[in-house]
Amino acid sequence: xxxxxxxxxxxxxxxxxxxxxxxxxxxxxxxxxxxxxxxxxxxxxxxxxxxxxxxxxxxxxxxxxxxxxxxxxxxxxxxxxxxxxxxxxxxxxxxxxxxxxxxxxxxxxxxxxxxxxxxxxxxxxxxxxxxxxxxxxxxxxxxxxxxxxxxxxxxxxxxxxxxxxxxxxxxxxxxxxxxxxxxxxxxxxxxxxxxxxxxxxxxxxxxxxxxxxxxxxxxxxxxxxxxxxxxxxxxxxxxxxxxxxxxxxxxxxxxx
Length: 256
Hints:
By secondary structure, the chain is an all-alpha fold.
């Protein structure tokens, strides 16, 4: 299927969803529209709220704060996950010793860690970065670890027979094999990095998209809550698109 057809279908799905939402909150097709609008807002009002935020310029500062927190969490978490994933995969003894501790750390609820990070790092950006890091790190770590372990033993044997050193194996065998796993995890991690930043802002901050949503919830402004969520979703899609561009460039050798 062509890209234009896929884009058309995606647009159609969004249009149908918005139309049903508008009908439910503005007409009696699905019941009392006032009740629906009270709980789910109205798409036109949400759109007006978003336009108002961008027109007045108030949203840019909050977007910048959330972007900074999410980007730092994403970069640090991805780098840590890649490095430790490769290390554990290449050192079976290290992986065997630390396996229960890694799984135990991954099992900790991140919401429980958020107040601890706020206590350690304060209510600035670093408590949000730490929370996002814990979300990104384990996703990338387990994917990289599995990707390196999945390298064909036949290819490894042939490469060693041809005289490849460990550094050459890492560059020409392990890394290309793991890249698909890495970028698969990065697509997931983009959303989790933003989630970590927003949840941290929601629990305690003075700026950011999470702060906007929390303030809107505090006064039962459902329109503001939905507006914040839509801006957040658009923000994640843009970042994910940038990751896709990098992936296409680095994995241009891979068959489509």
